[in-house]
Amino acid sequence: MGLESLCTAHFKGNSACGKLLLESDSLLFRGDFRLRIPFNSMRSVKASAATLRITFPDGTVAFDLGTAAARWADKILHPKSLLDKLGVKPSSVVSVLGMSDKDFLRQLRARASAVTTGKPAPSSDFLFLAAETPRALGALKKLPDSLQPAGAIWVIYPKGQPHITEADVMAAAKSAGLVDVKVCSFSSSHTALKLVIPLVRR
Fold it and tell me: Taking all residues of the chain, what is their mean pLDDT, rounded to a whole number?
């Protein structure tokens, strides 16, 4: 999620107070009525005065966001890429473990200065660990040895699955002496949780 705000939404003659959330691929409103508007279904995004107006196949909805309306419109019209959200830079040394997402690997190789798969490279700036089951989280204990002191480990795991949860990832991180600092949507099916070495141990 990039932004969230309490606001009033006006849609088809109804008004409701609720929470507006900007997700990686959609806008979500939760109030007396709920709306999820995928970016690719938006026909128009406009900010005027204090109101954000979105036109999509079901109609036009207006969100009262005050001075933040223009910022919301800009975020929707110019979303960050996945690699930008993950912090990968052209100078980054990246290691990828257990991941078979060819499109993500292609993006990494086009952006980062070095990408290693299968095993962690020494002094990595970023380590990406794909964890489909809790057992895969056991790798976290050894990964800090291959990480730059100020680097990060991103754990990529399935969304909304009972067999591996955010609590499982956070417990494994704590056991490995890591702290979680950020979460973001990796894809429609997976979440990314960012782990770092505590400042006192760097």
Answer: 94
Model confidence pLDDT, tens digit, residues 98-142: 998 999 999 999 999 999 999 999 999 999 999 999 999 999 999
* CATH assignment of the domain containing 184: 3.40.50.150
* Segment 58-70, tens digit of pLDDT: 999 999 999 999 9
- The span from the CA of 176 to the CA of 141, in Å, is 4
In this predicted structure, the answer to whether residue 144 has a pLDDT above a threshold of 60 is: yes
List helix spans (H) across the chain.
69-77, 82-86, 102-111, 166-175
Structure token digits, residue 20? 């507006």
Burial of 179 (0-12, 13-18, 19+ CB in 10 A): middle
Boundary-marking domain end, from 25, 49, 77: 77
Asked whether residue 94 falls in the same domain as residue 64, the answer is no
Contacts of 113 (CB under 8 A, 6+ apart): 90, 91, 92, 93
